[in-house]
Design goal:
- This protein is of the alpha/beta class.
- It has a single domain, classed as Spore Coat Polysaccharide Biosynthesis Protein SpsA, Chain A (Alpha-Beta Complex).
- The protein is 31% helix and 22% strand.
- The strands form three sheets. The protein has a seven-stranded mixed sheet with strand order 5-4-1-6-10-7-11, with helices on both faces. Strands 2-3 form a two-stranded antiparallel sheet. The protein has a two-stranded antiparallel ribbon with strand order 8-9.
- The radius of gyration is 17 Å and the shape is globular.
- Bound molecules: cytidine-5'-monophosphate (C5P).
- Cytidine-5'-monophosphate is lined by residues 8-11, 22-23, 52, 77-81, 84, 103-105, 184, 208, 210.
- Cytidine-5'-monophosphate binds at residues 8-11, 22-23, 52, 77-81, 84, 103-105, 184, 208, 210.
Length: 227
């Protein structure tokens, strides 16, 4: 089954401390965005791939994508990740029934994990990769004191891709627009809109590059042939 691919890449990555958008930061000489896109070299990806870029940076994104062999629709993103995804969803046309949404900042997702989450979405309508947490998670009361310690055996850390039937994600965004709900990921939005979301166990290597040390670690993995 054909699946659309939507890549939110419109974050400026301020926690990375660089003065260019995070998706354009070089990793072993190649923009992070390209390293991530190459993970989706499947014949079942519907074209064009939709990439969200931050306002004012279209020309740099076009230049980076010039060497990429698959057609890309560049769409200006919004202030929050959710705004970016909403704009991207408007550009989905064609017959594919599913959309996979994957952060540009996760260049190490494996083909096996991508296939597993797509299969789960075919079956359940909505699915996300996620990882059971190893650490005990402490909830801050907002003032720097421990407020609650949720049962660790039930906690999973969210990853992407998150994959949805198109009518499910469109309905969730319609619902969010009506009541002003803002989420940092789409699976939560879909769940809050009333649709079940299947959790598919991912891999620790599918981490999100957020800080300078994440970037150093990513560089180390690539240097040592991780693929
Ligand atoms: O900010 P965070 O690291 O959670 O962002 C996750 C992904 O969402 C990144 O790939 C980033 O480029 C993207 N994003 C976006 N539009 C925004 C903010 C983040 O497309 N306004």
């Amino acid at each position: 089954m054909k699946t659309h691919l939507l890549i939110p890449a419109a974050g400026m990555g301020r926690r990375l401390g660089k003065d260019l958008p995070k998706a354009l930061v070089p990793l072993r000489g190649e923009a992070l965005l390209l390293a991530t896109l190459k993970r989706f070299a499947f014949p079942w990806i519907a074209m064009p791939v939709i990439v969200l870029f931050p306002r004012g940076h279209e020309a740099e994104f076009r230049k980076v994508l010039a060497s990429y062999p698959i057609p890309v629709e560049l769409v200006e993103g919004g202030g929050e990740r959710q705004d970016s995804v909403m704009r991207g969803l408007r550009f989905i046309k064609g017959e594919a029934n599913l959309v996979a949404i994957h952060d540009a900042a996760r260049p190490f997702v494996s083909p096996e994990d991508i296939s597993a989450v797509v299969e789960a979405a075919e079956r359940h309508g909505a699915a996300t990769l996620a990882m059971p947490v190893a650490d005990t998670i402490l909830m801050n009361d907002g003032g720097g004191f421990l407020h609650n310690t949720p049962d660790r055996s039930l906690l999973w850390a969210c990853q992407t891709p998150q994959v949805f039937q198109i009518d499910v994600i469109r309905a969730a965004y319609g619902w969010a627009g009506e009541n002003g709900t803002l989420c940092t990921d789409d699976a939560t939005l879909v769940y809050r809109s009333g649709h079940a979301v299947k959790l598919v166990r991912g891999s620790a290597s599918n981490f999100k590059i957020t800080t300078g040390s994440d970037l150093q670690y990513a560089d180390f993995l690539m240097e040592h042939g991780f693929s």
